[in-house]
Design brief:
Layout lengths: L1 H30 L5 H14 L8 E4 L2 E4 L3 H16 L1 H24 L7 H8 L19 H6 L4 E2 L2 E2 L4 H19 L2 H10 L1 H11 L11 H18 L19 E6 L6 H7 L4 H7 L18 E6 L22
Antiparallel strand pairs: 1-2, 3-4, 5-6
Length: 333
């Protein structure tokens, strides 16, 4: 019995030795070998680059204000977000691609309303620049308005129509909210935080915690991270290549020009309407996400005109020669 056990253990020992040898040989095969030390070093350096932490600067600029990151908690909060966006590769790449389509619409509206340009990054982190974004809390559109807040700031929200999904009108409404918030705080940091937590919450916490800046407040994790996420994604947008995001002109999503058709009466079938203009139902809805039904019924007792965006059919096909780069910093030659 003892000899049998010894033989059994010896066989197991040999098996594991052989298995270890196979694993080592396989690893050498996969990593490759070369007589040239530089070639051998290339894949290793690539792996090391994937695990390198992103340097944190002493300060960043946000809304024309220099924000020091020397305080320990400020540095670490920024560190978390700049690393998260840097290594959240596919999502951050999509932000830049989509921004080429939406920033040309959003930026002029912010400027016209006296809102700092950096608030376009609030839109990025709110909705991922997804025109159909709808949160579990029932916030909708690029600017993630709740229904009550959207109505408060002038958006039409009813059966068949939801202007929270209307890029231009929702951006105008967001500007009204932001300017109203600024009139209360006189500080764009507090304004940004209030967009996430609400005016009442930020005002109450500033008073209870005896501080003047949202940076100094103990808040929920989501709100505490909010402004740092804006600052971090701004930094990546300023110089994507520095953080490993390499895009060419043809990778960006183009802004598609549209004409407008005015509608002042009921539309019984948007699919039939689309066909009149050489589009299908999906294409019509893609450019008019705020139309929320298969038909349109005009509100009773009101005279309204709705402008329906109609893209030219030729512009619905990819042509890299027609892509305009909105920000040259986003692409490499």
């Amino acid at each position: 019995m003892h000899n049998t056990q010894t033989l059994y253990h010896f066989k197991n020992y040999l098996f594991f030795i052989l298995l270890a040898g196979i694993i080592i040989l396989l690893a050498l095969f996969l990593t490759g070998s070369s007589d040239n030390p530089e070639e051998t070093a290339k894949p290793r350096s690539a792996v090391l680059a994937m695990t390198a932490t992103v340097p944190v600067p002493e300060s960043v600029n946000f809304c024309d204000r220099e924000i020091s990151l020397k305080r320990l908690d400020m540095r670490e909060r920024y560190d978390r977000e700049i690393n998260a966006f840097t290594y959240f590769h596919s999502t951050t790449l999509m932000y830049i691609k989509k921004a080429n389509r939406f920033f040309p619409i959003i930026e002029p509206i912010l400027k016209k309303n006296g809102i700092p340009d950096d608030f376009k990054y609030l839109c990025v982190i709110e909705s991922n620049l997804d025109t159909r974004a709808y949160s579990p809390a029932k916030a909708a559109g690029l600017w993630q308005f709740m229904e009550s807040t959207g109505k408060q700031y002038g958006l039409e929200i009813r059966e068949g129509v939801d202007e929270r999904y209307h890029i231009e009108k929702a951006t105008e409404a967001a500007c009204r909210y932001l300017m109203n918030s600024y009139s209360r705080y006189g500080d764009w940091i507090n304004v940004a935080a209030s967009y996430n937590a609400g005016l009442g919450r930020i005002s109450s916490e500033l008073e209870k915690q005896y501080v003047e800046s949202a940076f100094d407040l103990l808040l929920t994790q989501e709100t505490s991270r909010y402004v740092f996420r804006m600052m971090a994604i701004k930094e990546i947008f300023k110089n994507p290549q520095k953080y490993g995001f390499i895009l060419k002109k043809e990778d960006l999503y183009p802004l598609v020009p549209v004409d407008y058709v005015e509608v002042s009466s009921d539309v019984s079938d948007w699919a039939a309407f689309a066909k009149m203009y050489g589009l299908n139902y999906m294409q019509l809805k893609e450019f008019n996400v705020w139309l929320r039904d298969t038909k349109l019924t005009m509100p009773r007792g009101e005279s309204k005109i709705y402008r329906i965006a109609i893209p030219k059919k030729d512009d619905l096909y990819y042509d890299k020669h027609h892509i305009q780069v909105y920000d040259k910093n986003w692409v490499v030659d």
